[in-house]
Design brief:
This protein is of the alpha+beta class and about 475 residues long. It has three domains: about 190 residues, no CATH class; about 200 residues, no CATH class; about 45 residues. About 60% of the residues lie in helices and about 5% in strands. The protein contains 19 helices and nine strands. The strands form three sheets. It has a four-stranded antiparallel beta sheet, with helices on one face. Helix 4 runs antiparallel to helix 5, helix 13 runs parallel beside helix 17 and helix 16 packs antiparallel against helix 17. The protein is globular. The protein starts with a helix and ends with a helix. About 35% of the residues are buried.
């Protein structure tokens, strides 16, 4: 999440506030240590009930606005809202059985995530796969602490989670403050682009706009992310495996594997679409070997010239995500450096990872840019309070420990589009819909009442008035 905040707010915005970020980080760490000590001595002073009510409010509000998301966003919102609501309900029940259920749920989630991270890192073998395995082992240790429970009883499950959350959040803020203190460019997007200094801000056509109630229209200038989903591009009918087909690959009835594709297109004429220069063997046996992100699996790649050429040679993209608030100069610099290397690797340097990195370069500083007139801490508060930040962070974490795929790229692009082009808050949107419904209903009632009054003034019943009018 640190890298996402750096990308969305930009270094210029964060560098001027590094002291406040550092202080907030140390305060969060101190609170986390205090809660942990409070939990360890056996006498809990942590306010469980108020925390449970806040958790319940967050869960219910997330569920209430979950329908405003799209695709994987909507699903992740429902998962988050349901988990928070269930946890809050169990805390409010407050029995030994409820605490035991909570411990089992948290332990299982940590254990499953740790196992998945270890397996994917072991199979893919990306450059930092050993560090990812260490992280997975740590998650399994945390899971066993929930299961045992040691060194605390099941009643300390929630304070234990809160302390971990405060500690990790504080540490991330400290890291963020330390990294932006003296840097001149954003390392979150500069690993592929040697930028000597911070880029000048680009003025948007709609610079005075701070919210857009919906995606860009077809005739509006916007960055376009094209995604070809695996199941839609299979040569034969794909086997019905919903999650696998969307996020990994689709296998048709002949056994051939389709991974889909992703590309990025800008109104300035930039088209980024990396494709293997030689056709990859799609048989299950050979495909499993190609999954490893090792040098021996590097092959020559080729960049497609433009979308129309690629679509005519293959097919139209399945889904498009469009973003108004992007920086064409940063995107141009990224593309100028990235296109020098045409290496293709099915796992760590494929079409989807290329699009994800290009998208991050294009929207660097987008949130600070759109909220620039507000000044102060509003850009940071707005970014941190937007549910899509959590969604994008989860997608990015899974892609970093496994591989970027078209399905993950689609969810990532949708989440970032909500952050770069801010929409009205979910509650605000619901309030607007409710207000519009109330106004329409009131107008209808007024019209009905006016019709009845006009008829009664004539001394007729409504039926008689209708008959006379027809005559």
């Amino acid at each position: 999440m640190v890298r996402l905040v750096m990308i969305l707010l930009g270094v210029d915005y964060l560098r001027t506030r590094w002291k406040a970020l550092m202080a907030a980080g140390w305060l969060s760490v101190a609170l986390g240590v205090e809660v942990f000590i409070d939990m360890m001595d056996g006498s809990l002073y942590f306010p469980l009930k108020p925390f449970a009510f806040l958790l319940l409010l967050e869960g219910l509000s997330t569920l209430a606005v979950a329908w405003t998301g799209m695709g994987g966003q909507r699903k992740l919102r429902y998962v988050k809202g349901s988990a928070f609501t269930l946890a809050a309900t169990l805390i409010l029940i407050g029995t030994l059985h409820a605490n035991f259920i909570l411990a089992m749920i948290f332990g299982t989630l940590f254990f499953a995530d740790g196992v998945l991270q270890i397996i994917s890192a072991r199979i893919v073998r990306f450059r930092r796969w050993r560090l990812a395995i260490a992280g997975g082992v740590f998650e399994m240790v945390v899971a066993f602490i929930f299961y045992l429970p040691y060194p605390v009883q099941y009643a300390g499950t929630i304070p234990y989670c809160v302390s971990l959350g405060l500690l990790f959040s504080g540490w991330n803020m400290i890291l963020l403050a330390m990294r932006v203190r003296r840097m001149e460019h954003n390392p979150a997007v500069a690993d592929a682009v040697p930028t000597p200094a911070a880029a000048p801000e680009t003025k948007l056509a709609g610079a005075s706009v701070t919210e857009w109630d919906g995606p860009p229209s077809d005739d509006e200038r916007a960055l376009t992310i094209h995604v070809w989903m695996p199941a839609a591009t299979a040569k034969a009918e794909a086997q019905p495996r919903a999650i696998v087909n969307r996020y990994i690959a689709a296998v048709d009835r002949n056994g051939a594997i389709s991974t889909g594709h992703a590309a990025l297109e800008s109104p300035e004429g930039i088209y980024i679409s990396l494709y293997p220069g030689t056709e990859i063997d799609r048989s299950p046996e050979e495909f499993g070997r190609m999954l490893r992100a090792t040098r021996e699996n590097d092959i020559p790649g080729v960049f497609q010239p433009d979308y129309r050429t690629e679509a005519n040679a293959w097919c139209e993209s399945t889904v498009k995500v469009r973003i108004r608030n992007y920086d064409p100069e940063r995107l141009q610099r990224f593309w100028g450096a990235y296109r020098q290397d045409t290496t293709y690797n099915l796992t760590y340097r494929n079409c989807s990872s290329t699009v994800a990195r290009a998208l991050e370069a294009a929207i660097e500083g987008a949130s600070a840019r759109v909220w620039a007139k507000s000044g102060g801490w509003k850009p940071l508060v707005r970014v941190m309070s937007t549910p899509e930040l959590w969604v994008a962070a989860q997608v990015r974490k899974r892609a970093a420990t496994m591989a970027w795929t078209p399905g993950l790229t689609l969810d990532y692009a949708r989440a970032l589009s909500m952050l770069a082009d801010p929409r009205p808050l979910g509650w605000v949107k619901m309030a607007r819909l409710a207000l519009k419904t109330m106004v329409r209903s009131r107008r209808r009632w007024q019209a009905e009442e006016a019709g009845q009054v006009n008829v009664s003034d004539l001394g007729e019943t409504p039926a008689q008035g209708a008959t006379r009018t027809k005559a």
